[in-house]
Design brief:
heterodimer, A: alpha/beta, Rossmann fold, 2 domains, two-stranded antiparallel ribbon, B: 277 residues, 8-stranded mixed β-sheet, 22% strand, globular
């Protein structure tokens, strides 16, 4: 099990930005877009065979020529004032259970990523993912930010459009970040590296659909750009968002009218401080969320 | 005796350079389990070793199949006279790379295995009356050259289709290649309506190759009886159901069935062949 580096660049105080697939592929789209914008180049990988089942076999003229595994690659990107290492994993190591990493393999993977971060002197790690929220898809997704140190709370709070767990009603600052986006945060803490996980909101009714939600990726990208102090050309992601919006609208209007009526109410649900209270009562809000939850449970059973 | 990586070695056998045949318990037409069982019976093979399941299978209970509780099996058998080692196992559910290396560790360290053959069934849209073919994928040009001397298709091109994954046999073949162990995966196309049940003609096709390759002197009588029985049963199904007969006739004439027709044929044949007599 190992890391394979094709080059060993000398870097000055870089940061590492990691992304894995997850709900709506929000995190990985944000990270991959940033990687593309900065034209970051591949410089290493984690050997995948101990973590993953292969994804493709190539047989030519009766001979096995290649077995391809999900990729786990490191890229190096630079701006005028910042050097960034990207890590992009095509899958999370699951040990054959759920879709998100857990257990020994996930821990090993997180440590290997951090080994590379520390080898090149990274002082900070960013991970990104999705936050399922009772919002309407026409709203601008906020970004839930979770640092691995109290010292970072002030900084995180200063970012535009960002909320902490304690801003979310009923959570009391508590929550769980599943998979490697969360685990890397914890492993970084254990190894003395500061880290922040930024999660873009996805409407709860879109979380189960098998398509990406780049609108939330854009929110994540904006926060990453602010935090990194870099300017990012948003054209590529804006195009993705426009296409996705059209697809979601088509889907939304194909829903039964009674479902749409319920979902419309989400336009007025305020669940995070310090948002201004909406024109509905707390009781209404509870009822809306319960009805929507009930509807989607019923849909799940039916499918 | 306990070996490395959670394995148990039951006996020490002095092999010089042996061959390994690998069959997986879950296989199209029950090819893997039936061929390995037939080999073990015919060669009076002895239990040699096994891999402990705890690292590779979820052990939160047991699955029940055909009314019987199952438990993952990863067992080696050997026939010293023929220099042959047989592995019969369930495909692991986790730690695939470690598991496949454990298979090869035991094969190399206990049996000095120099070459391996995996056997397996693949789905075919031909009729059961068409002769079975044997296809091979080699992990080196040298193995391919050896196989081309036999009645085997050795020029297959294939790439995993989107949404699918390679087979565990392909993974094993790749691991063997990394370890410089010569090997090939052998495949028999199985009529789709026999995939979930049994295809003794496919078992025979695999066994014929192994028999010739290793000079095993296999007695096929028992297997030929199975083949005759199944042919008769399907013939009766065709008489009993003109629809089934029509579908099979179409396949025999290389005419594709619609999805609905295919599903109906599978249901009818499975019902007929698994009916208690």
């Amino acid at each position: 099990m190992g890391i394979r580096l094709y080059q060993e660049p000398r870097l000055a105080n870089p940061v590492l930005v990691a992304g894995w697939p997850g709900i709506g592929n929000i995190g990985i789209i944000a990270v991959d877009t940033l990687r593309g914008v900065l034209r970051a180049e591949e410089f290493g990988e984690i050997e995948p065979w101990e973590f993953f089942y292969p994804k493709r076999v190539s047989i030519r003229n009766g001979e096995l020529v290649d077995l391809e595994f999900p990729s786990n690659k490191f890229y190096l990107g630079k701006t005028e004032n910042r050097e960034l290492i990207f890590f992009i994993g095509e899958e999370q190591p699951t040990e054959g259970r759920g879709p998100y990493a857990e257990g020994e393999k996930a821990y090993q993977m997180a440590n290997l990523v951090l080994d590379v971060a520390l080898k090149f002197g990274c002082h900070r790690v960013y991970t990104s993912g999705a936050a399922v929220a009772p919002i309407h898809h026409t709203m601008r997704p906020k970004v839930w930010a979770v640092p691995n140190s109290e010292d970072l709370i002030g900084e995180v709070r200063s970012y535009d459009n960002t909320i902490l767990m304690s801003d979310i009603e009923g959570r009391g600052g508590q929550g769980t970040i599943t998979g490697l986006n969360g685990l890397l945060l914890g492993v970084a803490k254990r190894r003395g590296v500061e880290a922040i996980c930024v999660m873009g909101e996805i409407p709860l009714y879109l979380q189960g659909f098998p398509f990406p939600y780049p609108k939330a990726s854009k929110s994540v990208l904006e926060v990453l750009a602010t935090s990194l102090g870099i300017t990012v050309d948003m054209e590529a992601i804006d195009n993705l968002v426009a296409r996705s919006e059209r697809e979601i609208e088509i889907l939304y209007h194909s829903l039964p009218s009674e479902v749409r009526e319920q979902l419309e109410k989400l336009r007025h649900v305020a669940y995070a401080k310090p948002t201004e209270p909406g024109p509905i009562t707390e009781e209404d809000k509870k009822k809306i969320l319960e009805d929507i939850d009930k509807f989607f449970r019923k849909e799940d059973k039916g499918s | 005796m306990s070996g490395e990586c959670g394995s148990k070695i039951y006996r020490q056998v002095a092999f010089q350079s042996s061959s390994l045949v690998v069959g997986w318990s879950r296989d199209a037409g029950k090819l893997g389990p039936k061929v390995t069982d037939y080999l073990n019976r015919q060669l009076d093979a002895q239990e040699l070793a096994e891999i402990e399941p705890s690292d590779f299978f979820p052990l939160g209970g047991v699955s029940v199949e055909d009314d019987v509780a199952q438990f993952p099996e990863s067992k080696f058998y050997c026939c010293q006279e023929r220099n042959l080692v047989i592995f019969k196992g369930d495909p692991p559910r986790a730690e695939w790379y470690k598991f496949l290396n454990s298979v090869l560790d035991i094969a190399e360290q206990c049996c000095h295995v120099a070459e391996l053959y995996t056997i397996g069934g693949m789905v075919s849209f031909s009729a059961h009356t068409a002769p079975r073919e044997l296809l091979a994928v080699a992990n080196s040009p040298e193995v391919k050259k050896i196989l081309s001397r036999y009645d085997i298709v050795t020029d297959m091109d294939y790439e995993t289709a989107p949404g699918q994954r390679p087979t565990i046999s392909s993974f094993l073949l790749w691991v063997a290649k990394r370890r410089n162990i010569a090997g090939a995966s052998l495949w028999v196309p199985i009529p789709f309506y026999l995939v979930a049940i049994e295809d003794p003609e496919a078992w025979r096709k695999s066994l014929e190759f192994l028999d010739t390759r290793f000079g095993l002197g296999i007695d096929f009588t028992e297997l030929d009886e199975d083949i005759s029985r199944q042919r008769e049963k399907i013939a009766r199904a065709r008489i009993h159901s003109p629809e089934v007969d029509d579908y099979i006739r179409k396949l025999e004439s290389n005419i594709s069935l619609t999805r609905e027709e295919s599903e109906k044929l599978v249901a009818e044949i499975e019902g007929f062949l698994t009916k208690r007599e």
